[in-house]
Amino acid sequence: MRTVLLGAPGSGKGTQGVVLSKKFNIPQISTGDLLRAAVKAGSELGKQAKSAMDAGALVSDDIVIGLIRERLSEEDALNGYILDGFPRNIPQAEALDSMLDQLGQPLQGVVLLNVPFEELMQRLTGRRTCKDCGAIYNVHLSPPKKADHCDSCGGDLFQREDDNEETIGNRLKVYEEQTAPLIGYYKNQHILHTIQGTGDVDEITSAVGAVFDTI
Ligand code: AMP
């Protein structure tokens, strides 16, 4: 099942990706996670990516396309995957299409998580992530039972460096200008499914899962 979760920063791609990856037993592949790991490891690639990430801008297409090409060739991606945060613009989507066409394994579904713009800021400023299992909480909307600790594994929760108001504003602008055009791109390919990304998290998971079941 070769899928993409599409949506603005804070629309719930990461949250849904973690749960759906377990449910469907396919990896969630997040370019944001891959880039953060490269920054943390201090690799050359991480150094090149860091300034764009700190500013809330896009990292160069060459870097992220290279990361995806490598990641999709790993064995656990052979049965499918959920892409989260990639593609982020039309050139990336075209590069992905040509990569997958060469393998004869085109994308099968793109799910757009639709969240009103006003709600995104609140979600992003309150977001906390478990450093051990990647579970995502929100101190305003879905706080953990014990402050700063993960309900599922007890790991420490942290706030992403780029979840500050200034960077968030830029990331949302980048989404509108560069990523939102992908909605039309995938509509034209007849593989776009739109899900309302607000309300109960489990209900959203069921709705996305129902789409995945048809793929
Ligand atoms: P995310 O975790 O998906 O919100 O990504 C965090 C940051 O990583 C973004 O603000 C970008 O700076 C960078 N990034 C992640 N995915 C991509 C991508 N597909 N293309 C360019 N930059 C990306």
TrEMBL record:
Cited InterPro entries: Adenyl_kin_sub (IPR006259), Adenylat/UMP-CMP_kin (IPR000850), Adenylat_kinase_CS (IPR033690), Adenylate_kinase_lid-dom (IPR007862), P-loop_NTPase (IPR027417)
Keyword match DNA-binding: no
CDD domains: ADK
Binding-site residues for ATP, renumbered to this chain: 10-15, 127, 136-137, 199
Domain of life: Bacteria
PROSITE patterns: ADENYLATE_KINASE
Annotated segments matching region LID: 126-163
Catalytic activity: AMP + ATP = 2 ADP
Localisation: Cytoplasm
EC class name: transferase
Keyword set, alphabetical order: ATP-binding, Cytoplasm, Kinase, Metal-binding, Nucleotide biosynthesis, Nucleotide-binding, Transferase, Zinc
Binding site for Zn(2+): 130, 133, 150, 153
Assigned EC number: 2.7.4.3
Biological or metabolic pathway of the protein: Purine metabolism; AMP biosynthesis via salvage pathway; AMP from ADP: step 1/1
Chain spans, region NMP: 30-59
GO cellular component, one term: cytoplasm
Binding site residues for AMP: 31, 36, 57-59, 85-88, 92, 160, 171
Domain notes from UniProt: Consists of three domains, a large central CORE domain and two small peripheral domains, NMPbind and LID, which undergo movements during catalysis. The LID domain closes over the site of phosphoryl transfer upon ATP binding. Assembling and dissambling the active center during each catalytic cycle provides an effective means to prevent ATP hydrolysis. Some bacteria have evolved a zinc-coordinating structure that stabilizes the LID domain.
Function description: Catalyzes the reversible transfer of the terminal phosphate group between ATP and AMP. Plays an important role in cellular energy homeostasis and in adenine nucleotide metabolism.
Protein name: Adenylate kinase
Organism, scientific name: Methylophaga aminisulfidivorans
